[in-house]
Amino acid sequence: MQTTEIGASEAAVEGYTEIIFILLFVIAFIIFISLVSKGKIVINQKRNEAAVISYSQHEGSFSILKKWNFSNVPVQLVRKQVWNLEKYAVKKGVNRKWNESLAEWFQRIGINHNKETQKYLNIYDACRYGEKEMTEEDIHWFIRYSQSIRNELKQAVREKKKSHKK
Questions:
Q1: 111 close to 156: Cβ distance less than 8 angstroms
Q2: Neighbours of 109 (CB within 10 A)
Q3: DSSP category for residue 60
Q4: At 48, is the pLDDT very low, low, confident or very high (cuts 50, 70, 90)?
Q5: Confidence class for position 28, pLDDT limits 50, 70, 90
Q6: Which residue from 16, 57, 11, 120 is spatially nearest to 105, judged by alpha carbons?
Q7: CA–CA distance from 52 to each of 27, 34, 91, 144 (Å)?
Q8: What is the maximal distance between C-alpha atoms in the chain?
């Protein structure tokens, strides 16, 4: 009878050991996922290659879990407008790549390049690189034209979706 009791207690200990092992594995997995999502661990990133951070898996991106970092809102109104435009573009899947200038991005996503777009780019560059102080008129024009570019971006996304459906 003693052997039966000893066998039952050993089985119970073995059962607890398996449960503890599974719990430790689950905890380690949760910690791993949280580190990946916070960017502490980078997956599939080649050496000497900067990471492209986006909502979905695009060409050159390293993780579908990593989200674009929009925590530091710019103070300058001009830069804030471009920041908001980029944030919107990420949600729509036409995000700006890490190595693209604003002009290259506009060209890639199909924003018309005309005199007004060039003025927009010039104002942004002047603000971004501190070449001159912005006038109130330039800032207000920039804000209005940002809405126009946002509308063009919406149209480009619609056209992209239509072309993928065909």
A1: yes
A2: 19
A3: T
A4: very low
A5: very high
A6: 120
A7: 28, 19, 15, 29
A8: 95
User: According to the model, what pLDDT value does residue 146 have?
Assistant: 93
Which CA distances in Å does 2 have to 6, 13, 140, 144?
Answer: 6, 17, 89, 86
> Residue 120: exposed, middle, or buried by beta-carbon count in 10 A (0-12, 13-18, 19+)?
buried
CA distance 43 to 32: 11
Round to whole Å and give the CA distance between 122 and 143: 14
Instruction: Please name the residue that has the structure tokens 């912005």.
Output: 134
b/e 45-73 (16+ beta carbons within 10 angstroms → b): eeeeeebbbbeeeeeebbbeebebeeeee
Supply the DSSP string of 90-107, one letter for each residue.
Answer: HHHT-PPPTT--HHHHHH
Cα separation, 67 vs 56, in Å, equals: 8
Is pLDDT above 60 for 51?
Answer: no
